[in-house]
Design goal:
Number of helices: 9
Largest sheet: 7 strands, parallel
GO molecular function, one term: oxidoreductase activity
Number of strands: 7
Shape: globular
Protein name: Short-subunit dehydrogenase
CATH topology: Rossmann fold
Structural class: alpha/beta
InterPro entries: NAD(P)-bd_dom_sf (IPR036291), Sc_DH/Rdtase_CS (IPR020904), SDR_fam (IPR002347)
Keywords: Oxidoreductase
Organism: Rhizobium aethiopicum
CATH architecture: 3-Layer(aba) Sandwich
Radius of gyration: 18 Å
Order of helices and strands: EHEHEHEHEHEHHEHH
Length: 266
């Protein structure tokens, strides 16, 4: 069997304690992959215990992937396993609401460090190993938010614009290497993201959202099929298409109506 066939590989999933990351880990476990799951909270151990029900090996790592030290902790655990990574699902992400000047700067910086710095550092580490052996699959969790200026989520949307762009560029660079790069770009999804980002009183925070399990399956299948990018859900596909032909100033205004604090109570 090839290294990435079910039952023979190792999958690493970041941000896997809840939400899309946890559901991505379930997809890999169902396919027979052993797992290393990572998050910056104790709940990652509980998630790992649940994932073991699929009959594969599951190793939980609690690490803050917004720091280089946290990423190093993860890569050291991977090295200690003595195995190569066949699937890397770089899903760890953080959001923050309110107007940029009203945000705590350290919290805003942590969004950048989690969504961008830690993500590309991890991919640089694992991607080089994959390229050296000529095999591997990488899935990044971007967002349709990356297609529009995110008024009242300015930092978050900008980080997702980076991830979307980065994934397309990296895919092109690695197209002859045997390593595939895919980008999952979901819309609003039913996870704890909105609570953690302080967005529960907004229109988007109170809106009907996509199912995390379904979103994860779409992204996982795209990665396994070697697709470059996938927008989950027809409404999100339409929104992404409209964003491509709408002036940025209009998009910023529209975003403010759903993300401005208190917009969910009007």
């Amino acid at each position: 069997m090839a290294p990435d066939e079910p039952g023979k590989g190792l999958a690493v999933v970041t941000g896997a304690s809840t939400g899309i990351g946890y559901e991505l880990a379930k997809c890999a476990a169902r396919d027979g992959y052993d797992l290393i799951v990572v998050a910056d909270e104790e709940r990652i151990s509980h998630a790992a215990a649940d994932l073991k029900a699929f009959g594969t090996s599951v190793d939980a790592v609690e690490a803050d992937l917004s720091t280089l030290e946290g990423v190093d902790r993860l890569t050291e655990r991977i090295t200690a396993s003595g195995r190569s990574v066949d699937l890397l699902m770089a899903n760890a992400g953080r959001g923050i609401g309110e107007g940029f000047l009203d945000q705590n700067f350290n919290e805003a910086r942590k969004v950048v460090d989690t969504n961008i710095t830690g993500t590309i550092y991890l991919i640089h580490q694992i991607g080089n190993q994959m390229r050296s052996r000529g095999a591997g699959r990488i899935l990044l969790t971007g967002s349709i938010a990356g297609f529009m200026p995110g008024s009242y989520q300015a930092v978050y949307n900008a980080t997702k614009a980076f991830i979307n762009s980065f994934s397309f560029a990296l895919r092109e660079e690695l197209k002859e290497s045997g390593v595939t790069v895919s980008c999952l770009m979901p819309g609003a999804t039913e996870t704890e993201f909105f609570k953690r980002a302080g967005l529960l009183d907004t229109a988007i925070g109170q809106s009907k959202k996509d199912d995390a399990g379904e979103v994860a399956r779409i992204g996982y299948d795209a990665m396994m099929d070697g697709e470059g990018d996938v927008v989950s859900g027809w409404k999100n596909k339409l929104q992404a298409a409209v964003a491509n032909v709408t002036p940025a100033s209009v998009l910023a205004y529209q975003h403010s109506k759903v993300a401005k604090p208190g917009s969910g109570t009007k």
